[in-house]
Amino acid sequence: MDLSTGIAVSGTAPPALDPARFAIGGATPARVLRPASREELAEALRRAAREGWRVVPWGGGVALPREAAPESYDVALDLGALDRVVEYDPEDFTLTAECGVPLATLAATLAARGQELPLEGAHAARATLGGVLAANASGPRRYRFGAPRDRILGARFALADGTIVRTGGRVVKNVAGYGIHRLLVGSRGGLAILVEASLKLAPAPEARRALIYSMGAGEIVEAARWSAFRRLEPAFVTVVGAEAARGAGLAAADAAFVVAVGLEDDRAWVERQSEVTLGALGTPPAWLAGAEVVKLASTLADLEERAAVRLSFTTARNDPAALAPLIAPGAPPALAALAAGLIFHAPAGRLHVFPRAEDAASVVATLAAHGFGLIDARGTGAIEPPLAPLVAVAELRSRIRAALDPAQTLALGARWERGAC
User: Fold this and answer.
1) If you ran DSSP here, which 8-state letter would residue 410 be given?
2) Which site from 13, 220, 343, 411 is most exposed, i.e. has the minimal number of CB atoms within 10 Å?
3) What pTM, to 2 d.p., does this model score?
4) How far is the C-alpha of 209 from the C-alpha of 277, rounded, in Å?
């Protein structure tokens, strides 16, 4: 690729490569580059290293625009053209694809063979495989099917100096050596750039069903009603605040909270789980089945990406009653104000709330006292870094970054090193 013409500069860029589309936290790059092959990607990185440019890889741009601006940001590297399915082996339940392919495209390819890749990211029509892996993103089914890090078998990736490296394998039995590909999952593109990934697939379930309830705070915090779920294997049990639920078309006007219970398995087990759910929670106002359950899971994942300020927490308490500190009578005002917009994937213990920036620090401190550990913060500098690593971990992160990107070409590497990813 001729880099003198392959880089779009503000003022002369075609609309698809307008640098304004690649702003992060208000910071706009001077250049946008869209390589059409991994060789062009390597050439672009070599040029960036020579020029001292700071680079950010881009997928579908679902989350990056809301992140804090990098300290330095010169080039947006748009990976959308690297979108081929390289190898698909239905018999082995494995797939290798370039990381610019959208999740929805992969889902359609696999559905034709009765298989699925149980990775979830918000706005799957434009969220790319590489973006979901780089964020280690997941939605309501994280506990049932695992995180992206649990699905990846191997990867081809580009180091910041343009070197193309491969680790792992394309099938389970061939995976050997150091799992650098697993280290890159969750690194936000701050250590290396994922180009191609090999992943484990799953058979599509025989039956899918979702039961959708409208509940008040008192019903949710009643721990006894959730005890039956310890014997079940729901795909998801997600609590959504009224404001968020109505915005997604999931709630009636008078609902305080929506609780969505998703069941996916062989038909007999789904029926049995349905019986137990009905016994514990009663008859729901709405039922869904088949493809509608898939759409619901996607909608719940989308709700994680709807505001500039977001705090994400984890807790060992994995039933909806864990929300008592936020929604029970007498909850601190800073927490009670979050109830209408929260989303809580109970089996995975993942809570997302959307406070005002000025309230973020007090929300973190209050929830920490109730067993919620902060795992990510976005849109506020008051609690940066969101996850302060131990000294030994911080030193290890520093050494890893120095080994993979000694020139610090990848602009998001500093965030990863501080433990903010």
Assistant:
1) B
2) 13
3) 0.90
4) 11
